[in-house]
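We modelled each protein-ligand pair independently. The example shown here corresponds to the NAP entry; the chain sequence is given first, followed by the ligand as SMILES.
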Amino acid sequence: MTGGGGRDRADSPVMRVTVLGASGRTGIHVVRLLLERGHEVRAGLRSRRRAEEVAGLGAETVVADVTADADDLVEALVGSEVVINAIGAPDPDQASVDLVDRDGVITAIRAAEKAGVARFVQLSAQFADSPDQGDRLVRSILMAKQISDSVLRRSSLNWTIVRPGTLTDDPPTGRVKLGGHLEPGHVSRADVAGVLVAVLDEPLAENQGFDVIGGEIPIPSALAALS
Ligand SMILES: NC(=O)c1ccc[n+]([C@@H]2O[C@H](COP(=O)([O-])OP(=O)(O)OC[C@H]3O[C@@H](n4cnc5c(N)ncnc54)[C@H](OP(=O)(O)O)[C@@H]3O)[C@@H](O)[C@H]2O)c1
């Protein structure tokens, strides 16, 4: 077993995966887990600033700023079968969130379609599908994600939308609670990364959106219980 990712590496077909936001606190766990499982990983970076750190893990790096030129983004994604999107706006203000989490993610979805990517795994947030019920302090983020999530659901891509509760930097447990809509909760970035990677092995996670919080169920079993 790999830390939090779930199944043995031998079980997974090798996939060519681009991780957007690969330098982020969740994205870097995603890159590590994918590499551990033997996938071919392209680490998408907002800028070259953090390229050495990410390349040191063994991933190819590519500049993939979702607010820059859309054609460059298509080029960055060509050849990938899967995109895992772990980006998040650097500032919580409305303009930044709209630019990155709404418009930037929509640009990434359209670029993935144009690049011939088959599968798009989206790191969203709990209550993104019902922002009125979420914390007022993050409502602008939830509203931005609500729009980009719905564009993804209506795209031509095979999609999965993972909506975690509040993120922590706790170590991975490999165990979570998953469900259509769960009570508010916390979950570590490492376990969220485990879910983002494990969905690639679970057909039931295709064209599905679900919440994830900390829990007791091993990630593969939690995903296998999706209906
Ligand atoms: N915080 C929470 O409790 C919580 C709860 C639920 C969901 N979420 C969501 O989970 C996601 C990941 O959170 P996190 O804490 O791991 O994020 P993070 O550490 O802030 O990382 C964000 C990543 O996005 C990249 N990025 C920012 N703007 C970009 C752009 N224009 N183009 C390409 N990449 C860009 C950053 O690049 P640089 O390294 O260059 O800055 C970084 O790699 C976010 O979408 C967040 O909204 C968070």
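Confidence is low (pLDDT under 50) at residues 1-7.
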